[in-house]
Amino acid sequence: MPDPGCGRQRPLSPHLQIYRLPLTAKMSILFRVAGVVLYLTMFAVVGLLAVLAGDGAAWSPVRDFLASLEGRGLLLLLVLTSYYHLCNGVRHLLWDTGRGLEKTSLGRSGAVVVAATVLLTSLTWWLAR
Prior knowledge:
The chain is mainly alpha-helical. The chain has one domain: Fumarate reductase/succinate dehydrogenase, transmembrane subunit (3 helical TM bundles of succinate and fumarate reductases). Helix content is 72%, strand content 0%. The chain is built from four helices and no strands. Helix 1 packs across helix 3. It is elongated and about 75 Å long.
């Protein structure tokens, strides 16, 4: 991009298409997305509770949907999102105490969060069958 003052080419900052975000940045974005998803899910939970509190016959379509492939996939996604937000929240709490902020600890704790999320989701899914 030419500089209007001197006519020279100025270097451009790396764009998202070129620059690869570090794992910590990707996990931070996912942490926020998971929080929004969980927040919006609470509206669905309130709606389901209203259905349960009302006519029992209205629960039948909900139960059928949750038993379908799409419903089970949605439940799996919500369990995965919940555990990821929980595990990464614990990581952030540790950071608030000043622990784990070294560059080598960041990658290690990120891997622990991902592994714990997969393990807890798998265990929950296996126990719920």
